[in-house]
User: What shape does this take?
Amino acid sequence: MEKIKYEKPVINKISAGVPSKFGLPVKQKIISDIDGIKVSTLMEKYGSPLFVISERTIREVFAEAKRAFETRYPKVQFAWSYKTNYMDAVCSIYHDEGSWAEVVSGFEFEKALSNGVNGSQIIFNGPDKSETDLTMAIEHNACIHIDHFDELYLLIEISRKINKKARVAIRVNLDAGIYPIWDRFGFNYENGDAWNAINRIMLAENLELIGLHTHIGTYIMVSSAYAIAASKLANLYMAVHRKFDYWLKYIDLGGGFASKNTLKGAYMPGTETCPSFDEYAEAISNALISSEIPHENLPVLFLETGRALIDDAGFLLTTVLANKRLNSGRRSTVIDAGVNLLFTSFWYNLGVYPSKEMSGGAEESTIYGPLCMNIDVVRDAIVFPHVNTGDQLVIERVGAYNMTQSMQFITYRPNMVLIDMEGKTHIIRKKESLETFKQQELNPKR
Ligand SMILES: *Cc1c(COP(=O)(O)O)cnc(C)c1O
Assistant: This one.
């Protein structure tokens, strides 16, 4: 029999049977498998750490969002926000579900084209669109969402030069009760810039105004903010009709729906506080159908929701490297996945769970990553069971913004694996190797 490892004892206060403000203590949650595949099997095959994406969850959450909107509004079109997760395997699932592509750079535009998206079904957002990017977008008949006046004038110039009409919308920033207002993007509604931009576009013969866009922020926890945004865009939509006798094609309310992650400093868990797709859909559809817009002229409603669709589908599997008692007496656990892979750990209290039942009590701990950097804290305060070196853990809700923003640092970035609808696993991005770097690096001869 193996001797049990010695750990310095600690004294914990036990409040037996007394409910805390969150009710009675709950049993430690464990995640032993993902879509029926054991965590240990996945890690044995693909290594540690390991990103895992569940196709089943992607499709189920998408179906839920689609149902919420399509039962409340007649014309809905989703566009997948590439920057949220632009693994080709992931984008392809959204395109298969009928989503267009929403991109914010020339790189993402090219990625969408290479994923087989028709140029006219690419929404091109963002403040950085070079002359080359805009030319490509016009040639592919993309929906170009203009961010600022300089871009508007550049578009007029390019569309004249190549003698081709550009299909455009404007991004509008507005006061929807969410502060600070993201007024660095697009044209302001309240000060008249948005209306001014619309007039300039209507005057430019090579620009065809097709829609209005806003993206009021991210992780918006009040659905009523979208109602305010939708009514303001509806006002502009009607103003265009009144002045130019012209109906725009769409209103795009952007993304920003909250995912079920828990923000740092939040009192209640995100699963309890984040609005459902039904609540967002109710707010938006109410505002549009009860606006001045005649029902036969209602615009198509575009949605670019990112994090709320994919966060739940992503997991990061990781291994315990060591446990340490800090000088303060606090327990700490070191794992093999650092904040360089978990960009969202800077603003969420990510859920970290053992993959098997743990004996012994839980204790408030800190979970550190493997980087030789003091900022590498995956969870600064978590009540966590006593895990041992080699134990496998699962970090949940990491589908949004971690794969795309993960940063290479001191070691290779890990494999990314997709579990398909039949429970088969596929590598969707290979682990880096020394070769990855050799291909890109040049060392001048001296
Ligand atoms: C990032 C972004 C989105 C997606 O935002 P989420 O908060 O992930 O839903 C949508 N539209 C635009 C313009 C964006 O920049």
